[in-house]
Amino acid sequence: MSESIKTVLPESEIPRHWYNINADLPEPMAPVLHPVTHQPVGPSDLAPLFPQAVIEQEMSTEREVEIPEPVRDAYRQWRPSPLYRARRLEKALGTPARIYYKYEGVSPAGSHKPNTAVAQAFYNKAEGVKRITTETGAGQWGSSLALAGAMFELDIEVFMVKVSFNQKPYRRAFMESFGASCVASPSNVTEAGRAVLAQDPESTGSLGIAISEAVELAAQRDDTKYALGSVLNHVLLHQTVSGLETMRQLEQLDDYPDKIIGCTGGGSNFAGLAFPFLGERLRGGPATEFIAVEPASCPTLTKGRFAYDWGDTSHLTPLTKMHTLGSGFVPPGFHAGGLRYHGMAPQISHLTELGYIHPRAYGQLECFDAGLTFARAEGIIPAPEANHAVKATIDAALACRESGESKALLFNLCGHGHFDMQAYTDYLAGNLKEEAPSAAEQSMALAGLPTI
After folding, report:
1. Strands (E) located in 104-247
2. Start and end of every Tryptophan synthase beta chain-like PALP domain (predicted)?
3. Which of 23, 61, 418, 437 has CA 20 to 30 A from 94's CA?
4. H-type helices in 87-138, by residue range?
5. The whole model's pTM is what?
6. What gap in Å lies between CA 131 and CA 123, rounded to an integer?
7. Helix H segments across 219-286?
8. Which residues contact 222 (CB under 8 A, 6 or more apart)?
9. Angle, nearest 10°, between helix axes 140-152 and 114-126?
10. Under CATH, what is the fold of the domain 6-13+68-110+232-446?
11. How far is residue 369's CA from residue 366's CA, in Å, rounded to a whole number?
């Protein structure tokens, strides 16, 4: 096996198609329902929010979806991203495991999010849209859409969850540098935001609230659409460019993963890496294990209910069947802001129910500890979100040390921690704590699920 550290591909090998796992599902997913009639939604129901091309992708069952040339051209700025062999981490852990990580932190926004932001901006621009509204948690999605808006000359309005807005001021500066506007959510800009503030003036916000605000604005103007950075089928589809590249890179190394690991908030990071490999398994390929890692403070897959729920707090969005903590759930303000969402991608939820994906939950302190172990070995400080995948990978590597097995472990390092140094400062000073929601809080939020 090659002794190289980094495996790179030329720009000519950027995939020409995204992979759609809907084509290979052993059982079809539950339909998306209209929030009022509870009947399956059609393209016309989604038209006020999304461009037609995106709606078609959301409902597609074609295995391959062509990547438009303008999108591939924009991808060339950072794609193909490198695949690293974590040899120094392997040595530090004393493990026979072969640890690989796909590094999406090389994108201009510092994460995997531009893979779909660029695509959604392109499709909106092609249909004459002038403005896009969105939400963001940690700010990686808002940063990516701001970048894509600058590329395609679109106005971008971002509602950023208030706790992250206060924790990460440089994310706001990043968005504004690319011409986007960024508002702390809940805000006084929308009826949805004002309603939350009326009940709780000190609300720290949630992704569900921020989605409500963004959707409300998008529905008010014909020249405006809404964009989502995770959860929905078309978003996960766009992210598979990462996994498809990784398959080619591992072919060059003559290796194949025994375990694939990713952090999960809404699911796009995990799915982008895992779905092309999971598709191979569904078609009779190797029995790779797929591990989705979430925060114990927002345990959607491990403690949520698989049920129909709204994607937002104000119940403006369609109903999807997913693992959920309830649309009214407001997670604690832990530092992995990108993972603070009450629901999980329907595709990931469906495959978890079928037994193909195995979820785990970790507290933020053990994840920061794992992140520092990784950083001191590999020289990259991960984003707090990615630390969850790092923690699970280290656990798997230590299990190999105990068993003596040399398994191939692959995870997605979805971003860097350059905008998150306050979180590391707080951790090193001993100022971080675990903030798990109570059973009563979870029960109360789940009590609000719709009756279908």
Report:
1. 131-136, 155-161, 181-185, 224-226
2. 78-415
3. 418
4. 87-93, 114-126
5. 0.94
6. 12
7. 233-252, 268-282
8. none
9. 40
10. Rossmann fold (3.40.50)
11. 5
